[in-house]
Design goal:
Layout: H1 4-11, H2 13-31, E1 49-53, H3 54-57, E2 67-72, E3 78-82, E4 85-90, E5 97-98, H4 120-134, H5 139-150, H6 154-167, H7 180-190
Parallel strand pairs: 4-5
Antiparallel strand pairs: 1-2, 2-3, 3-4
Helix pairs in contact: 4-5, 4-6
């Protein structure tokens, strides 16, 4: 009876080391350390950083730059770096910039029940006028004037108001895209 086990061990010590090297490379690749971070964040281990892009988060991407470095720093602080500037996504880090200047607004939703005989631009203009009536002393007179100006019935004026509120038309401020998807991706880096 042959003993292939002992012959393999005696005949391939080089291959055993080589196989161990391949296993280590595979393990490092699986853990993400081989991800090339082109713009690393100082003071954060590369293991806790990765390049992230709009393609990964799709319509949930909340920032103007389409790509950057995401990291989880000490204390669970989530950071984003783009164009050589590090921003705080969540938490606090001295010397890092506030991410608010990179955030984008939520997209406007399609109207649920628009006044079809009016273009969107006319409806938006009517909405601005209707909102201005709220600050007037004699609101009823103002509303009647706006309705006459845009040839709106009382029901149509209510529809225009509802659409403007729903779609956050000016003069209302639009909501910013939530940072939650970016924070969740950063939290995943903390556990690496």
């Amino acid at each position: 009876m042959t003993q292939p086990h002992s012959r393999a061990a005696a005949g391939r010590p080089f291959l055993g080391r080589r196989a161990g090297s391949f296993a280590a490379i595979a393990l490092l690749t699986a853990c993400g350390t081989s991800d090339r971070v082109s713009d690393p964040i100082n003071g954060v281990p590369l293991l806790h950083q990765q390049t992230i892009s709009r393609a990964q988060l799709g319509f949930r991407w909340p920032l103007i730059p389409g790509t950057g470095t995401l990291a989880c720093a000490d204390g669970g602080v989530i950071l984003f770096r783009s164009a050589g500037v590090t921003y705080v996504v969540q938490g606090e880090r001295p010397g890092a910039a506030d991410i608010s200047r990179l955030r984008i607004f939520e997209a406007s939703v399609p109207p649920s029940n628009p006044v079809g005989r009016l273009t969107q631009n006319v409806r938006m203009e009517a909405f601005v006028s209707l909102e201005q009536c709220r600050s007037q002393g004699d609101m009823n007179t103002c509303l009647q004037s706006v309705r006459r100006r845009f040839s709106l019935s009382a029901d149509e004026a209510q529809l225009v108001e509802a659409e403007g509120q729903e779609r956050r038309w000016p003069p209302l401020s639009r909501r910013l895209m939530p940072l939650d998807p970016l924070v969740a991706a950063g939290r995943a880096l903390c556990g690496r």
